[in-house]
Each structure stands twice: as C-alpha cells, then as structure tokens.
Design goal:
10 helices, about 350 residues, single chain, globular, 7-stranded mixed sheet, 3-stranded antiparallel sheet, alpha/beta
Amino acid sequence: MVADRLYLDHAATTPMLREAQDAMIAAMRGWANPSSPHADGRAARAGLEDARARIGAALGWDGSILFTSGASEAIAIALTRAKAARIVTSAVEHDAVLRVTKDAGRLAVDGDGLVRLPQGQGEGDALLAIQHVNNETGVIQPLDRMERNGAILFADCAQSAGKLPLPDADMIAISAHKFGGPPGVGALLIRDLALIEPSGGQEQGYRAGTENLPAILAMAAALEARSEWLARAGTLRARLDAAIEAGGGEVIARNAPRLPAIASYRMPGLSARAQLIQFDLAGISVSAGSACSSGSLKSSHVLRAMGWEEGAASEVVRVSFGPHTCDSDVDSFIAVWTRMAERIRS
C-alpha cells in the first residue's frame, strides 16, 4: 500500500500476508513444471499435491480442488461446463457470474438483499448459482438453509472463503487475493468432478495450463495463517454504522446478516464519484461497488435489484476492512465522512 494512506478497500484486494509472501518467494527460487516426468517435475508435483491437501484441510473441504487463475475462471468453468439443463442465479451476483449466464433465470432479492427462492426454482435438473457473501453489501445468503430439492448448488465464495465456514455447496469458487494470498490464483472446489464436462490438459483434465505453483503455495500459506480478526472487524463496523447514521447517512442492508468486513453507506446529496475523489484526496482508499466495474462507476445492479432508485444508489460507497484495520483507521474515515456530510447540509 502507498505510504501514509488509509486502505479500506480490502474487498477489492487485500495485501498479501507475510506468510504468503515468504512461501511464494521460496517457491520462486527453484521450481519445475509439475507435469514434467523427471525428478524436478516430480518434486514440483509433490509440492502441488501437498498444497492441494493443505488448502482442503484449511477450508474443511474433502472434495476435489481444481486450481485456476482466480474466482472468475472458476466461475466460468463451473457455469459454462456444468451438466445441468438450466441455470438459475440471483439478481445480485458478481459480474463474473452474470457475464456467463446471460440466459439464466434471475432470482429476485428483498430490500435487504436476501435471495427469494420461489417454490420449484431449485428442483430437479437446475443449477443454482448464488453468492455466499455479496461483494458490495456484505450480505450473507443463508445457503445452508436453502431448500434445493436436488438442484446443484454453486456458491461464489470469493468474499467469504478464509473468513467464514464454507457453505454446504456442490461447487465453490475462491480467490486467493481476497484472503491475503497473491492475485492471479484461485480454485474451483467441486464435490464430484462428474458435475462438469472435462476440457483436457492439466488439473485432472479439467483446466488446461501449467499450474502456478509459487502462487498456489502462497495461497495455501495464506489460508493456514488466517487469524481470528472478524470479531474485531464486527466491533469496528458497528461503530462505523452508528457514526454514519448519526451523521445523516444510510447503512445499506442494515438489518441483514452481513460479513463484518464489508459495508456500504449512502451519503445523501453527494455522488459516489465525488465522494471517492474527496476520500482519495484525503488519503483514504474506498470504492463504489465492485472493483471489477467501479472503474466506470456504473450504476450498481445490486442496489437496483434491492429496490434502490438510481439517484440514491449513485450516492453509495463501499468500505471494507482487513486483518490490520484498527480503531484509528475507522476514526479517520468517520472524521472525513462527517466533514463531507456537514458541508452538504450547510
């Protein structure tokens, strides 16, 4: 991170943990192609499979793990090659899901961003693709209580893996740079490989391309090193929620179960674009919605699906915490937010 700046955009990417950096540097000093038959290749293969087992143990996952370049690729593999007659997603999914399911059914959400699953939508030959934690609002979908009636469940866990227990899903996408690993590596967790069509190549024939062993080893180290910081994040977010409301702002999905590390706030009367500029000038990094789309600052499809009007939705920014976010960081954000809100009212 840039020195002397306050970074509150961990939902976009969180800095690599020291343990992940050390593991990646060590691996980059000498490694071979895990598919090579010689001794160096066999040693690399052993390291790869050890990392696969370590990641499964850290996540409590006993199914297959296919390494990918990140959650977006894991999502594309699962949703374009699934052996399902139809796909149903929610209206608040990440753009990576919406891009590859343009013809899918879309489940509505209520005003708190919780998915409504009408009778029959989760039955038989369907694949349900529902995000575990929303990347804009932090809303946690109660996937373990959802009636599936035999449908395949795919869960985008990019924001929850390494923070919350994994849901009881058939396929799960994870991304290392969301939990302190390096960017450009992730995985598709899958209960039964027969759920998707193979493509040939590496990863048991389900993903072509040489595995990025240094990044995979760093991902394993990041998962193993995670600390119990979410309880502290919950205290920080509760404090921030209260300050925003006291200052005339609005907490998005206030009454829904939310990941403590992610929150979105509306400042009535000032656009998200103007807020981001002023926060940036004050040395604070936050975002407006998903990092994958906020470069264009387009209207949030998540907020629209929750029933927000265009004008109000355009006044929302996202704040997200990491393992080292502290009281003084929240105080600094509150001070800048309050000054901005007071200028609007004056």
